[in-house]
Amino acid sequence: MQVFKFGGASVKDANGVRNLVKVLNITGYEDTMMVISAMGKTTNALEQVVANYFNNKSELQSSIQDVKKFHNAILLDLFDNEHHPVFKKVTTLFDDLSLFFDRNKLPDYNFVYDQTVGYGELVSTTIVSEYLNTIGIRNNWLDVRDCIKTDSYYRNAHVKWEDTQQQIKRQYKVNTLNITQGFLGSDSNNFTTTLGREGSDYTAAIFAYCLNAQKVTIWKDVDGVLNADPRYFENAQLLNTISYREAIELAFYGASVIHPKTLQPLQRKEIPLCVKSFLNPEQPGTTVCKGKGISPEIPCFIVKKNEVLISLSSLDFSYIVEENISDIFNLLHLYKMKVDVIQNSAISFSVCVDNVYNNLDKLLQHLKAKFKVECYENVSLYTIRHYNDVAIQQIENDKQVLLKQLTPTTMQIVTK
């Protein structure tokens, strides 16, 4: 039994869906769980729908129609018959989305977000499933919300593993191609929850863990895991193998190819994770498995943009001691700040955070009651694993370094 995950880039248009079929024919798909993301940039488009619901209701329906038109173009390219049942199924999904906005009474942004963005995955899997059935590849479509059960921490839900394992084993059909959505789950009230951005990788790992899969393959538009994001760094190199430990380190620091939570359930059962190109499916890609380090052992570069650096110092030159640090972390937790780097001295404390929930102003107001506060927005956090002098110079060149921290294997720099 194997698990495949196809991201949005792999099904961004009709040709992408056809290419997915080629991948399945090359690799085989019997007894396979296939997890599929929203098509192309649909999640971003649905985030705009949410923004319009709260801030610009006159544009709400037109923004929903834009998403529907995008998918209708793909449908018309894939299906010769406009009376095919898939057209009605997709229309019904968009009608359900509009109905939610008509009936919703809760003003909670995070709740509305989760009830909205999941339609991207529901539509994409409906289209792919129906297309595969049409060309003779029979499959079992699953609503992942019936499988993955979570708490109600909207936008970053936590999995209830025992309930999830029972539901997955009940829903999955052996010796069949099963298709489901990434990124989504549901809480005890059957409201949709999401597992965090890029959570489709995590979805694949959840199914692999619960079904004791032989391996997980994540299909990307790159040849595998590279030592740097080619959008930001030149001459990125392919990593052939990565240990679970090293991959978790890279994910923790923000490597975009692997979701931070994906590797933990796989490591517990030593299920290999392969990252391969859907454009070159016969190439070996990268394998994450039991072992040591990386091969080849070269510096790995990670960058996180639009971070916030907060520097605190005591108002009376007293020490920043345990009580102060405890207060600071309680506030970071209260305002849901993701902490990426910390550094402190006797009378100062600096922290680089990701302002995911847009609570920065509230946090700063709270901190200023007790500390002198300096805040730098839109900074970049660079991390180098297995750094050397050349790698450090490459990053620091022509940048203003606001914070720098080194350990024997990792260097982190915050730059303006």
Automatic annotation (TrEMBL):
Source species of the chain: Mangrovimonas cancribranchiae
NCBIfam families to which the protein is assigned, alphabetical: asp_kinases (TIGR00657)
Catalytic activity: L-aspartate + ATP = 4-phospho-L-aspartate + ADP
Identification of the protein by name: Aspartokinase
Pathway: Amino-acid biosynthesis; L-methionine biosynthesis via de novo pathway; L-homoserine from L-aspartate: step 1/3; Amino-acid biosynthesis; L-threonine biosynthesis; L-threonine from L-aspartate: step 1/5; Amino-acid biosynthesis; L-lysine biosynthesis via DAP pathway; (S)-tetrahydrodipicolinate from L-aspartate: step 1/4
Family: Belongs to the aspartokinase family.
EC number: 2.7.2.4
Binding site for ATP: 231
Example of a GO biological process term: homoserine biosynthetic process
Top enzyme class: transferase
Lineage: superkingdom: Bacteria
Keywords linked to the UniProt accession: Amino-acid biosynthesis, ATP-binding, Kinase, Nucleotide-binding, Transferase
Domain called Aspartate/glutamate/uridylate kinase: residue spans: 2-276
Cellular compartments per GO CC: cytosol
Any one GO molecular-function label of the UniProt entry: aspartate kinase activity
